Amino acid sequence: MLWIKALHIVFVASWFAGLFYLPRIFVNLAMVAPESVAEHERLLLMARKLMRFTTLLAVPALGLGLWLWIGYGIGWGPGNGWMHAKLFVVLLVLGYHHACGRLLRKFTTYGNQHGHVWYRWFNEAPVLMLLAAVVLVVVKPFCRPARIPPAMHKTAAWPLALIYAALVVYASLYPFDGWRPVGIAPWTFLAAPVPRYWTGFDVAANLLGYGPLGFLLALSALRTSPRLPAVLLAALGGGLLSLVMESLQTYLPMRVASNVDLLLNLAGAWLGALMAFALEKAGAIARWSRFRERWFAAHSRGALVLLALWPVALLFPASVPLGLGQVLERAEDALAAWLAETPFPAMGAGARFRAGAVVARRGTAVRDAGRADSVPAGVLHCPLGRAGGAGGVRHRRGVGRVRRCRPR
What we know:
single chain; 408 residues; mainly alpha; two-stranded antiparallel ribbon; 2 strands; 65% helix
């Protein structure tokens, strides 16, 4: 829990840093003269990039906060009025974030109606909200002593829910390529008309895809504390994840954000949560707990999670990059691309040069060994690498020349 709390604090601080600086750009935009088009566009580009980055930081901050609240039960039960006040502050911060997005769109369309003084006062709001949140968390002014809650059950539903959520993110954003700005807010699809064309497969996939997530989230909440509104929390968690995924799909050319998909995902999570609630009330979950305590070790939930994921891993078997010898090449390409626009572009080229030199030495050693008749007849040796081009070196005993072989 301490790692989750530390990461939550880091992302919240980063989120507020963006909210502190974005209105300062609004102040400068409001002071730009109408004829200074170049300066206006430069500040507008800075504001767009900062708004996008701040929104990305807000997602893990909210997700980790929900994990602490729901997963570990922080702030639940009587005597925790500080948590209710903090949730109200979080809603205010989200509203402020949304207001920044609306003001940015007005600057984009040259529809700003406020002066720089108004934006200076507007910039002070996140300072007050951060102060209120810190005081509520540290001082806990509305907290009164309460009885110690019962111990939380150890359940494998939480890690399974997190793994399934990661699979949903992968399936929603694959192939993670072609990100581009579209000039509209990522949540514009909420007010869009209903799509005219859809298939039964889309409806079934969006409805059933979020069912297991709602089931696992509700089961985790029920096993954490019976007093939690498990169905409501699971439906809200699934709906929030779907909203984030649909919003991010706005920036992907191969994806289409849809309000119908959001509603189907929310319905699927709600149905899955209802199934978990029904099984809990019927006693099926309690019987499984007794079976697990009887036949499995006390701390076996990690092994059970891996065992449950093993059939899923066999559905689409694929060769791993490590077995194909492509890890070094991909690492070199990623390093070169990452350092392309930095003061250290030579590091990527240096790594590529050193790797090519190593492979070249290996190819020379194989060639010399072939001349010494140390390679059996009919044996081909083709080391993978970048020795002067794609592919390695192929040498057959009895052949006095060295040729390039095609990469496998």
